Known about the structure:
56% of the residues lie in helices and 4% in strands. The protein has 224 residues and is mostly helical.
Amino acid sequence: xxxxxxxxxxxxxxxxxxxxxxxxxxxxxxxxxxxxxxxxxxxxxxxxxxxxxxxxxxxxxxxxxxxxxxxxxxxxxxxxxxxxxxxxxxxxxxxxxxxxxxxxxxxxxxxxxxxxxxxxxxxxxxxxxxxxxxxxxxxxxxxxxxxxxxxxxxxxxxxxxxxxxxxxxxxxxxxxxxxxxxxxxxxxxxxxxxxxxxxxxxxxxxxxxxxxxxxxxxxxxxxx
Length: 224
């Protein structure tokens, strides 16, 4: 439902921005739900007359954030990392540089439903100082990856499955960004960083792994 002040439901914004009927794509809907829960996009709730559940609406001012978050989610599966890209520009640059290495000279772009010229513009803007909540990034996808890789395989995981050769630092970062913390950790503990940024990433991966391990142990203790 649309309201006079420009607020729209999630499904209406997706139809408006991407010409996609959200109800027909469960995986995309699930990913959007995760993005909204992580606070990437500010929402509001209203209780309509005669309904027991509240309706989630997205203000018109948030359309840029929604559009850009969906595009970033096409590359990066973890909504928490996407949220950080909106708030931490240095982290955004690090991720963008990694994506450039993976995709710019990739011969599989047509198969991955990516338009090369739009992709170049997408990365140029991502590496600039623009506010992701105030400017629309170019859409490099002819079809949203969340509609293509609908079995839980992200765009970067697909690239890795195709056998793209990466350096140690890039491979470590890709595993981390795709949520494979165990594989990322196994690389991090052996990795000898040659830059401050790579060392910070290595330490972050180790810290996240140890935190996840500690949580798992505590959870197992309470369950037994």
